[in-house]
């Protein structure tokens, strides 16, 4: 609800080394995702209670490596608590918790401590939808408007959106309803609020045209489940999935959890109250690694649990099928979305010939990785209170060592090294220059000379160099000599110009590509009405004071213009919007995978004599100048 994150995160089956957290760029500036701060010393790990199994001994090196990596992350205050479970064909062979569940009382985390697993919840949403498809209540390729007669949007093509589009991030919905999504108390009605807010949006792309991480799609699944069953989504999942699987430590935050049953988040060294994720289907489940291994076992058994069928084998197989083959715009084809899964061939394991279904998850304070390896009958869940402890690297490191020990792969792969030799430029760098927009802040590409490029990123109201001195290399990518190992190229697809970034990822033995921006052309000058709004600041008026956004002192939005690209309105020093008349600004980009997510559309009106700004269901009032 990532990916990174989510990435609610970065997409996110395979997550780049620097993953996008769940919060939108307009809110990311006010909350730092260190998750730890100055904390108490790390407590020793608390082991599970299962009897030792042969694989636990055989895979002891992989387990010890994972244990050491987690302890190091906790000791460095990258996470306050981490919990992990590893399962093989013998069952759960490693389950352990590290750190503190409640720093205030120095209470150790245990294997029964609940963590917010964020967008890993999407796997449960997809599973719930497939259960209802099996029962004839839903159909994957039927328009969702058939089941939700009150649903509407400003683009007539919204009627083409299907359940398959929702579950594979290809619906064209804007991205994320940020209103009250994270809070320090339960806030009901988020899913209906999201549906109501979509009536004020256009689609950002046609359904099925491309795939870009979309929390709104899974929130709409929540509404579909309620519409066809007559039950609240959380209740349906509890009755039909959690209870049958024996996931007794898993729950949605419809009310406060008992103290001592969950891990407290920490912000700037302060122990916070329970984090409530209002978006249940897209990222609201709190669980434990042990519970999630029960879910993983059901996937490995193709829908069966202890001799009883929970969902059809065909449904499980469809969830694990690549949904990207029909996309029209797909510049980064290694992102193979499933239904609910970020990837059905997770790139880090696919690199060594191993098939893995993977989903990551992130909230304001937690980050999680979930792997199911169907051919190896292996699964892992790693979750932590913290967003900088590198869960993907640790998860891949454990799995690669386990796979090497079982001889599924010849050896743990080495990290990437070296930079390709220079090549004669075949493209004039000046032809690639321009402003490349995305959801969190534009890039500026400028030619130093015919064969050299500088890339800068907009941050804090200024341009910061992120990749100076790029030159074309023998592999067809533009590199510099920096130690980061990032490289770039530029593609034109469907008349759109994309900047593609390639980064070392996960354990470090492979690279991932991602479209990080779409080049925009200048527009006619802004009208007088828009000129008058430049430099203004806007405060939310219908956000709960218990939302994370307001409780931690954020939520203010700004309107400006980017000098290098006239004619657009810049939202909170990040997104570039196209005016549509004097009172509306629309989305401008169609960037696949992650950097085209969480877009806004603005509408202005006068209410009781005062200016009002709307973005979906969020309302704002104009702040007076200081």
UniProtKB/TrEMBL annotation:
Which residues does the UniProt record annotate as the domain Beta-lactamase-related? 68-382
Give yes or no: UniProt keyword Glycosyltransferase.
Answer: no
Keywords, sorted A to Z: Hydrolase
State if Hydrolase is listed as a keyword. yes
Pfam hit, one? Beta-lactamase
Molecular function via GO: hydrolase activity
This chain belongs to the protein called: CubicO group peptidase (Beta-lactamase class C family)
